[in-house]
Structures are given as C-alpha cells and as structure tokens.
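Our consortium's second objective concerns turning raw sequence data into structural hypotheses that experimental partners can test. To show how far this objective has progressed, the report includes one record in full. It was chosen at random from the queue rather than selected for favorable results. The single chain below, 544 residues long, was entered without modification.
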Amino acid sequence: MNATEHRIASINVLDNDPVTFEVVKSTLYAICAEMKSVIMRTSFSPLLSLSADLSCAVLDRDCNVIAQGVDIPVHLGAARFTAVSALKAFPRETWREKDAVLLNDPYEGGTHLPDMSLLTPVFADETLIAFVLSRIHWPDIGGIAAGSSSVCDEIIKEGLRIPPIKIIEGGVLREDVLRLILANVRVPSDRKGDFHAALAGHARATERMLELCGRYGAGVVTGVMADTQTYSRRLVDGRLLALPDADVSNEETLDGDGIDDDAAPLVKVRIRKVGSRMSFDFTGSSPCVRGPINAPIPITSAAVYYTVLSFVGGDIAPNSGVYAGIEIIAPEGTVVHATYPAPVVAANTETANRIVDILMGALAKAYPDRVSAGSYGSACVYTFGGFDPMRKRAFVHYETIGGGMGATAQGSGPSGLRVHMGNTMNLPIEGIEAALPVRYLNYEIVRESAGNGLHRGGAGVRKTFTTLIDGVEASVLGERTKSAACGVSGGEPGGLASFRLISRNGTRELSAKSGPHILAKGDLLEMNTAGGGGWGTPPENRKQ
C-alpha cells in the first residue's frame, strides 16, 4: 500500500477528552506562532524581520485550515485555495517526506505575486497527516517597478508568476529552479535569504508536529485536527442562530485603478443571513478594469471570511470550520473574481480592505452594534528602489502605512494602525534611514481626519520622505482619496487620503494609485492616509 494512502485512525477527542482536545488544539496554534518567529528571526528583509508581513498555518491532508498564526487575514483566508492548487498540480499520492511546493500565481491559489507561498507535508508513521503553509511577502518579485507594486495593465508586467512547482524533492533543493527565480528579482541575495528563512520555519513546524504526534499519538492529533473545525462550527452556528435573520445590501465605488482614475469600479454585495448560514452575493459588481485593483477569488473570499469571523465575535478559533456555512457568489471576470490577464497587485492591500468596509456597511443596516464604521480602506503601500552609490548595491523597499479604523458601539477606533485585512507592524524609521538613501521628514497622526461621532473614528497618518540620491523609483497604491469612510448609526465620515510629490518644479497632486515616479535628489513624497468613520450621533448634534 502506498504510504500516503494508508490512513491513521482518527480519534474523537472533543467529546471524550476535552482537556486533551484543548491542549492539542492550542499546541497547533502555538506551532504556527513559533514557525513565524523562526522566519522573522532568520529573514533578510525588514518587511519580514521587523514588519512581520508573513503568515503561517497548519492544514489537514484535505487542505482544510486547522490552525493559523495571529497573522495577515488576507494571507490566511486564501490558504485553502493555495493548498488545493498545489494538490491539483501534485496529487497527494505523489508527495514524499521533505517535499516542498512553491507558488505565487494569483490564478492558481496565490494572492498577489510578491506573496511567496510554500507548502510542505507532515508524515507520521509514513502517513501524510497534514501540511504546513507559509506565505511571506517578498519586497520584490521583478516586474516594471521596484517593489513589484505599481500601476500596470496586465499581470505579466507585475513580476515573475510561479504556478505550483516542486522546489524541493525528497529534501533536495531544485537549485536550477531557485536560480531562475532569483534571476528575475532586483536584490537576489536578500530574496535567497528570505527563502531559506521560510525553509527554517517549516523545519521547525514539522519538528513540533512530530513531537506532538509522539506525545499523544497520530490518531489523537488527527482527531483534534478534525474536532477543532467541528468546535468552531458549533460556536459560529450558535451565535448566528441567536441573531435575527436579515437580507441587506450595500455598494461602493473604488478610487480608480491608476490608469483611468475617472473610472469608478463598483463593488456590490447582497448578504442574506438565514439561521446559521450566510450568503454573500457580489452579482452586479463591475467587470475587471485595466489597472491592478482586480481581486482574484481567494482575496475576495478572504475578505468575506475575515468579516464573518469579526461579526461572530472574533474570539472563535479561526479555521475552516468557521466558514463551513458560508456561500460566496462572485461572477467571474469582475473586480471581485478576476480572470487572467487582469493585474491584481493592489487587490490584496486596497480592494480587500474596501470589500470589508462594504460588507460591514451592509451588515450595519441590520446589526449596527456588531460592526465597525468604515475604515481607511487601504494598506497604503509605497515602494521605492534604485542603486545606492555609497553602498554600491541595488536596493528596494516596500512598506505599508497605517490609518484610521472605524469606531464601534464599544468605543473609538484606533489611529495609525493597519486594520482589517493587514496585520503588519510598524517599520522603524531609524532602521530604514540607516540602510537606505532616504530621510523621513515627518511621521505623525492627522487628528482632524478622524470621523466625529458618539465614538470617534481613528485618525490617519502623514508620512513624508525625501531622497538623498537621484534616480529613485517610487510608487504609491492607496485608497479613499475620493470616497470617505462611512459612519454608522449617525456617525460622521472620516477624512480623505491624499498623496503629493513635491519637487523643485512645484507640488503635484497624485491619484490614489500612481507610479513608477523617478525622484531626483531632494524630492519629497508625502502620503496622508484616511481617517475612520464615527459611530453614533455626535453629542453636539443631538436634539435636545
């Protein structure tokens, strides 16, 4: 019998031994956290080591998410799509110990091209019982602009597109494949270091999984892997059943696509909640546009999953069981279900966050006390790169900027943070200035951008840098320069975002998505993120 066809008898632990269930379940989540720590401590890129733009998860042999780190929702909600695509290319029976599949193709289970996904198997007693997945954001994967996050009109121009490929076979690295990949990025030595950091994280996670099987038995571990989905599903069902049914709709337009900023792609949704089931129907959303804001179905699904998890309370263990009762209808060829060759790089960071706000806005019509007002709707990505003559090396930098989150019935929204679909940390200015030829002139909260209300929305951020050399290539991908974050229950909208390029020739107002721009020494790029909407009628506006 083929090793991968042999099945370990799973044991029902949840109903028979709840203490062991909780210990093993918690260990699976701890494995994801330790895996992330290893990758951060061994990576080369500050985007990983300091900003933590990566995610880790454990999946069962059927590609269901069992446990995940406290990481990036847009990464994790797409994890099952990644594993399914990898297994479609390499069926279960072909996997061996120490194999690894790499991919980044948004049309084959990926998110956007800079997110490099690695999937490795876990074998216990010569039986495939699980997969370990990481998704790490490379600061560059080639394409027309430094940082691989700029404006273009087809995915071919966004960078190197990698369908599922077996990068390691039986523990032997495909050096030829790795060389091919590294030949298409701007700083190959750093990206090689980031790749090996991912391998180190996977090795640690596999080691911990085998220790867990050795301590409790593979049957107990696989039983808990099934039970934890059942448990999350029970909790979600209970909370949804306790709420009244609803049928609500909402729609908003995005702030152009960077190519045709007069275009206003529409995202439209109808949410129906009946008993313990919810459906999200995006019929009526605009067709794919020329610029890079088209969302592949894994991205749209991730936004829905995040919204559901938030809506039911946020304290339920996130795994595939949470989403078992969720239906998503997203017509192909639209901005919420992009098809090749539509560019997609800003869907992760901008479109996904706007989708969450649109979903929250719909739910607010029936459940205003359970959702937040609109947020800054963005990750506000800025990238720059070039050649540093002092250090005599190429450089590339990718960073996100926080903004204002919408207020809730419980209190005001936080200011200056990545919210909703992103969960990256602040990158210290001092570290960037020490390594790259730029200087930051300000980094401050824009308090007037907070939406007023009984509870105020969070405020946006202003960040400005100047270049110390000529020829720096820079791009910006943002949102909410035209459409403010909405308030809820009488709350007022947040302030708008804005972007400016200031040079010796004057000040140029930039659209929400623009680049690549070639900056001369002394040029300034100023970025202002949007504020969040308020919740509840402001006290001064209430009728006496």
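The partners drew two points from this record. The radius of gyration is 23 Å. Residues 3-233 form one domain. Both points have been shared with the crystallography group to help prioritize constructs.
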